[in-house]
Amino acid sequence: MASKAVVDLRSDTVTKPSQAMRAAMAAAAVDDDVLGADPTAQRFEAEMAAITGKEAALFVPSGTMGNLISVLVHCDVRGSEAILGDNSHIHVYENGGISTIGGVHAKTVPNNPDGTMDVDKIVAAIRHPDLHYPTTRLICLENTHGNCGGKCLSVEYIDKVGEIAKSHGLKLHIDGARIFNASVALGVPVDRLVKAADSVSVCLSKGLGAPVGSVIVGSKAFIDKAKILRKTLGGGMRQVGVLCAAAHVAVRDTLGKLADDHRKAKVLAGFVTLFSGIHN
Ligand SMILES: *Cc1c(COP(=O)(O)O)cnc(C)c1O
């Protein structure tokens, strides 16, 4: 009997760990990461810091926790406000955690269909000191932008928003769940793409195919604070090297395949467009 191969296209989150990932998990050297002693976690975090051009990295259980920790580190004073795209993952899909858990107020700016927010609207959203207002402390971008069809923000645009942030004394966080897809699609190395950002959250379990986890990257001071918040939120894990070992293989084996993934997605999109045209 011929077996039918099923290609599951619900999401890039449904991929199963490869044999190489499972083997690496089984062989991983581990210790208690809450005590700062897991060698595989430390090696992986150093690797991700180097790839993204930041001082330090921290493995976290999910992208949602990575974004929450990042926003809370940058907005650690009560009465803080973060500027967010109205269609951003942080604003739409993360249970309002920055507000319900972090006490951070969201100021939304409309997302354009290409995932950007108009620069003049970002500037207009920055609060001036007034006893009626919360204090703007952070701007968040999303790259690629999920709700805008996976559009990539250009390095020029990110640099421009980074300049605005800096000139107003604000921080810039990038929700880079699929930042490696953006890097490959744009042909810009990921460290260059996120140069203007004070922090980036990167999903390992999306396009890269790891079974579990995200990393956040930033300065050493940012990661030191992030580590405390990760523990507060219950995201400190013990022998987490088993997960980092799989994530290491995901990064090693998948990055070089993303261009081909994009090519296949475009072919598939072409068919979908063709057939939807026939049915309409
Ligand atoms: C998936 C995703 C997240 C959150 O990641 P989880 O690991 O599912 O919590 C954040 N931002 C974007 C853009 C995402 O696609």
Automatic annotation (TrEMBL):
Names of required cofactors: pyridoxal 5'-phosphate
GO molecular function: L-allo-threonine aldolase activity
Any single GO CC term annotated in Swiss-Prot or TrEMBL for this entry: cytosol
Modified residues (N6-(pyridoxal phosphate)lysine): K206
Keyword check for Membrane: no
Keywords for the protein's UniProt record, in alphabetical order: Pyridoxal phosphate
Domain Aromatic amino acid beta-eliminating lyase/threonine aldolase stretches: 8-273
Superkingdom of the organism of origin: Eukaryota
Keyword Transcription on entry: no
Any one GO biological process: L-threonine catabolic process
SUPFAM superfamilies, alphabetized: PLP-dependent transferases (SSF53383)
Record-stated family: Belongs to the threonine aldolase family.
Protein name: Aromatic amino acid beta-eliminating lyase/threonine aldolase domain-containing protein
Provenance organism: Paspalum notatum var. saurae
